[in-house]
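Protocol step 6 of 9: fold each sequence in the batch and record its structure tokens directly after the sequence line. For illustration, a two-sequence batch is reproduced in full.

Sequence one:
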Amino acid sequence: MTVVCVPDSNAQELLGDLPDGVEVIVWNGEDDKPDKLAETVFWVPQVEDSTNLADKFAALPKLEVTQLTSAGVEDILDSVPDGVTLCTARGVHGSAVAELVLTVVLATLRRLPHFIESQQEGRWNPMEADDLRDKRVLIIGAGDLGEQTARRLRAFDADPVLVAHTARDDIHAISELPSLLPEADVVVLTVPLTSDTTGLVDAEFLARMPDGALLVNVARGKVVDTEALLSELTSGRLRAALDVMEPEPLPSGHPLWKAPNLIITPHAAGSVASAGARAFALVTDQIRRYVAGDDLINVVKGAY
């Protein structure tokens, strides 16, 4: 018997047809532990679960695979016991997040915040806007999300430039940022949060961006120095769109709420109606691979 643990009954319902011999149990990570939890070999935790991880792993002594339903691993990576394979949901949420990137970029360039404000005030208030054609968009993070964002930008005749930790075919190295940033109309952050990317977007980084440029963050809030960004927004030199920020959730009264030239969405880029079904289609496929003895996909190896 292969025991698989998922976080709630909805997740259980989203699983497709599973191989014979698979038993699914439900556990939300709390103290009320179901029967056979100690027999679990394949665990799907709650989305971005970061609390009491040591205790949760201790309750799963036979665990072999931890399958996330998100792409980021920074909250769990250091807690995974030796011998347990960690897999991400890379590829599941990329299309939805890339759509939000396009949404906020177009909204900013086409001045939608201005027009919405004028509509609410009942004023006919024309303003010249801009478009994406020929805009140079620097995408920092060349994984699935970066690639999906670039593909959509090309459909708008923009010029996406991908940046990764190290250079490869048609992708620049992050060490080239000092020369790339001054030419960027838009900078999109899609990198994972690591020791290398924490605080990457600091005052020096922002100072290299040209006047009027737009920063879009769909990565993690800690990639950006909040105070440095606030300074640039308040001066009116730069614009931004943040789906993630530091701190998060953003508390009431935080200066970001009233910062000019800023669009905020509450970590909602991947929150689409089909997200759960897509995530658990991947989980089902991974369970089938595990039972068959096939290689799992999206395995986290080495330095993330």
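Sequence two, same batch, same settings:
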Amino acid sequence: MHLRAKPWAADWLATHSDIVIDQERATAQIGKWQDLFDQEQPIHVEIGSGKGQFILGMALAHPEINYIGMEIQETAIAIAARKSFDQVGKLPNLRYIHGNGNGVETYFEKAEVAKLYLNFSDPWPKKRHESRRLTYKTFLKSYEAILPDHGEVEFKTDNRHLFEYSMVSFMDYGMRWAADDYTLDLHADEDKVAGNIETEYEKKFLAKGQPIYKIKAHF
């Protein structure tokens, strides 16, 4: 969903460039992302962070991991970063990229990212838009290029069609998962929902009684 532009967004991002990295700077940061964090530790990236509830929650819950939220919409990334900054200041393990998730291999080296998250991505339901889905094969190739061997992609959605499409896309690409690495109703499974950090969309869909689908797939 495209958000209405906020008049303060561009100025806020410009004055907080230590927290939010623009696309041009992100490409120059390849191989050197650890320099932006207080400690050298595994880097996890969320592609399509929206208003940032998930990535902030993860950074607070797991200080032993460095997190990067990536979002193309200026308003969304500004809302996410400002919300985080206003609540807890500059977190030592959280940064943002204001950039396109298409072509993440231009931002990161092989194995520079330990894990990827895709949360409630746009389903692009029309067949002619298949290549825009974040689980399409060209995106998977980009993810493989920045993850370690057998690296993991964690995917959550409320959209059953997109979930089924993504499982087939993962399999066709050669990705695999164990029997307990997926669920068709995350919040009905006490074992799998333990430690789950909800996104804004997840809260919305749960309130409507919709099941949340989740899978952890490995290259």
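Proceed to step 7 once all outputs are recorded. Observation for sequence two: The two ends are 29 Å apart (CA to CA).
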